[in-house]
Fold this sequence. Notes:
Blueprint: E1 2-6, H1 11-23, E2 27-32, E3 52-56, H2 62-71, E4 76-79, H3 86-91, H4 93-114, E5 118-124, H5 147-166, E6 170-175, E7 177-179, H6 188-197, E8 202-205, E9 211-216, H7 217-230, E10 235-239, E11 244-246, H8 247-258, E12 265-268, H9 283-286, H10 296-309, H11 311-318, H12 321-336, E13 338-339
Parallel strand pairs: 1-2, 1-4, 2-3, 4-5, 5-6, 6-10, 7-9, 8-12
Antiparallel strand pairs: 9-11, 12-13
Helix pairs in contact: 1-7, 2-4, 4-5, 6-8, 8-10
Amino acid sequence: xxxxxxxxxxxxxxxxxxxxxxxxxxxxxxxxxxxxxxxxxxxxxxxxxxxxxxxxxxxxxxxxxxxxxxxxxxxxxxxxxxxxxxxxxxxxxxxxxxxxxxxxxxxxxxxxxxxxxxxxxxxxxxxxxxxxxxxxxxxxxxxxxxxxxxxxxxxxxxxxxxxxxxxxxxxxxxxxxxxxxxxxxxxxxxxxxxxxxxxxxxxxxxxxxxxxxxxxxxxxxxxxxxxxxxxxxxxxxxxxxxxxxxxxxxxxxxxxxxxxxxxxxxxxxxxxxxxxxxxxxxxxxxxxxxxxxxxxxxxxxxxxxxxxxxxxxxxxxxxxxxxxxxxxxxxxxxxxxxxxxx
Length: 342
Ligand code: TYD
């Protein structure tokens, strides 16, 4: 297939580009705006690859999207491009609506008009909102609780409407919290790992007892590939790791693996509207022959090793734009935070 893969210089997108190129004969055009979290270093090893082309651009740029689909005879679109960080969505919701809703709309409409035969929307389990008990199924009511998850829900249901209305062959994946190499260090695991390496404090929101289901990026990409190739049009597939853990537990595991003290933990003012728990039922995707392969403790150790061995990758990020964001987001909270056990 000739595939247009958006957001391919980001975390999940870049892993997906590598996976698809290495496992099949797909030709891939990566479209990425290279905003703060897009990073060409994530694709550096693909320079000169005969089946890959990189284009810098915005998914909201309709003429550009239309030209790429035409010129590269695109047959499938995978939309990984998104504003993804909940905390940033509290500071600037409009950019989330623009990219996650309007941008998805541009891709859908351009794809439909050009007769593209597959459209995969990478969504998130956070569209279900906070799930106190049980597991979210694909048919559950969506109840997003942050501008981030609400904007992802917008893109997700807009995509599904293109199947209902136009029979445009859309599939949607709703993945859980993904972790692994190359993840921008604003997210929980890479933030805590890189802070701990530097003996900096680890800011746990609220009581640290919120639960997430952790999914290794390789397993997430395998799920996306399975849905791309074998998913039924108009259908949503949950993708989860089956590794439900409390944030405090994960923070303690990171510290233990790195041989650092729990004194680095700080309980800080909670995130407003913080989802207490997320968990999904993946039976539908398992029915397509997929299952997660990487146990959390093993994946976490490999991820820690990657950050230890790739300091220049994350130090460059942490010394740039990130610094000001971190200062605004955490300085006061950390000063007022409480230590573990106090
Ligand atoms: P995050 O990586 O932001 O993903 P999401 O909010 O999409 O689940 O956060 C994962 C969990 O970690 C979430 O419960 C919020 C919590 N968290 C902290 O306690 N401290 C932090 O500094 C961050 C970034 C997250």
